[in-house]
Structure formats: structure tokens, C-alpha cells
Amino acid sequence: MNKIDKKKMKKIRVWIRAVIQLLFFLFIPSAFTASFNGVKYIFTQIGDGASLEITSFVATLIVLCIYTVIFGRFFCGFACAFGSLGDALHAFYVWVCKKIKKKPIKIRAGWMKKLSAVKYLVLAAIAVLCFTGYYSKTQGSSPWDVFSMLHAGNFHLSGYTVGVILLILIAVGMCLQERFFCRVLCPMGAVFSILPVLPLFSLRRDRDNCIKGCKACTMKCPADIELSPDKSPEAAGDCFQCQKCIDTCPKGNIHTGFNGVKGNEIVLTLVRAGVLLGLFLWLGI
């Protein structure tokens, strides 16, 4: 495949991802909220000493966790409404900076690496609030609730001042840093990042064939991930399966655990999106 073909295929894959993100954003925006409600329900029930039931929220959480273990964080990279919003805001900000010929402001990689631990603190804080029964008293402070209301066309946000302010601050972070919310603040990101990922779809690279000093894949990665080498038991839990690193590698060294499968094949992407859509329809989201 010549360079022109590679560039053309890269553009096609970019557009396919954008279309998938848009469709999930428009028609199934509640998947993130449903799974997040499952987490809150579990800790609330434990705190109350009540029995756990497989509610629709818990079922969504379980299914998404199983899906993530098998396929990696494809949901985060292609179907999460918050992740897609972040991608759109960041792309728009970069586009505006190009138009006015200004260099985009970006949060330093070192800071982002440290800030990435904050999401675990956010998850822990939410768990404690739910366990102690105080989460219900924080109504109006959740940016997720505000986002859901706005997406549904509900602009009656009186009593949600704190939530609105937090959502605006998150939006600013999304503009300045690609996948800011996912890396720094997302409680579901904290859950998904600690899940084991089967080697079938986790991305690796053949370091023996890498160009000396080349860090193209890490520089392109929105999570600043340094991919594990072949046959390594480790898998990057913060990988959003955005597939950007695969096309960026000048030697084509990045691949999945399947022999001969890169991970960004159009058919494979559509299959993973189709499986996820089928699961959401089955769950009634």
C-alpha cells in the first residue's frame, strides 16, 4: 500500500470513528450515566446494609465491565458521550487556534501524569459519600446531571449552580487537553482502568523494529501511553482504543494480540461498535 493509499485509509478511519461517536452521542448518551448510577447504587446499598439486586443500572455496569475486559476501552474511545464531547471541544479549540495562528495552550505532560491519579480520588470520594448516605445531599453539584439535562433539552438549571460551574471548568480542560475528563476526573475511567484487559485486543508494539528514539505513538496518544512490548503480560489500562497510534507508527509495529491484526481495521471497528450497540439495545438503554 503506497503513501497515498495509507493517507486515504487513515482519513476514512478518522471519519468512521467520528460518525460512530456522533451516533452514540445523539442516540445513546445515557450509557455513561447508567453505568455510573450502577456504581453509586452498589455503594449506597452496602452502606445501608441492604441486599444488592441486578437493577438496570447494575446490569449496564456489569456488561460494560465485561465488554471492556474483552475488547478494551472501546466504549470510552467510541461511545462515551463525555469522551466524545471532549474530543469535539478539543478539536474545535485546536481549529480555532490554527485559524487565528496561535499556538494551542496545552497542559504539560508531567502535570497530566500526576493529575491522572485524581480520578481514583473522585471515585473514592463518591463511594464514601454513597456509603455514608451523604451523596443524595449533594444534589445540584454533579456536572454529569447537568450534562444529561442539557442533552435532553432541559435548561431549568436552578439549583444546579455548582454543577454548571464544574461542567464549564471541565469543558475548559477538555479544550486545553485531549481527553482531559477521561484522564483526570472520570470515575468510570477509574473503574475501567483497573480492569484486566485480555491480550486479544490490547495494543502492543514490536520494539525490536522501532526507529531508534522514535516516540511517535506516545506523542500521538491522548493518554501519553508508552505501549507494552510484544509478549508482555501488561496492558495499558488507560488506553482509550482511539487507534491513533496505529496509523502514526512509521514502521507499522503496533498490533493486537491477534496474529496479523492491527486493531484499526474498519471491519473490526464496526464489529466492536455493533456488539456494543447490540448490548445497549438489549439492556434497554
Task: Kindly describe this structure.
The chain has helices at residues 3-27, 31-48, 56-71, 74-79, 81-99, 109-115, 118-132, 143-151, 161-176, 180-184, 187-193, 216-220, 244-248, 266-283; strands spanning 204-205, 228-229, 254-255. It has 285 residues and is mainly α. It is built from 14 helices and three strands. A three-stranded mixed β-sheet has the order 2-1-3, with no helix packed on it. Helix content is 60%, strand content 2%. 34% of the residues are buried. Helix 8 packs across helix 9 (161-176).
The first-to-last residue Cα distance is 41 Å
Low-confidence regions: none
Beta strands, count: 3
**Residues in helices, as a percent range:** 55-70%
How big a fraction of the residues is strand?
A: under 5%
Strand order of the largest sheet: 2-1-3
> Taking all residues together, what is the mean pLDDT?
90
Q: Tell the overall outline.
A: globular
Element order, helices and strands? HHHHHHHHHHHEHEHEH
For the biggest sheet, the summary is: 3 strands, mixed
Number of helices: 14
**In angstroms, what is the radius of gyration?**
19 Å
Which key features would you list for this structure?
three-stranded mixed β-sheet, 2% strand, 3 strands, 285 residues, mainly alpha, 14 helices
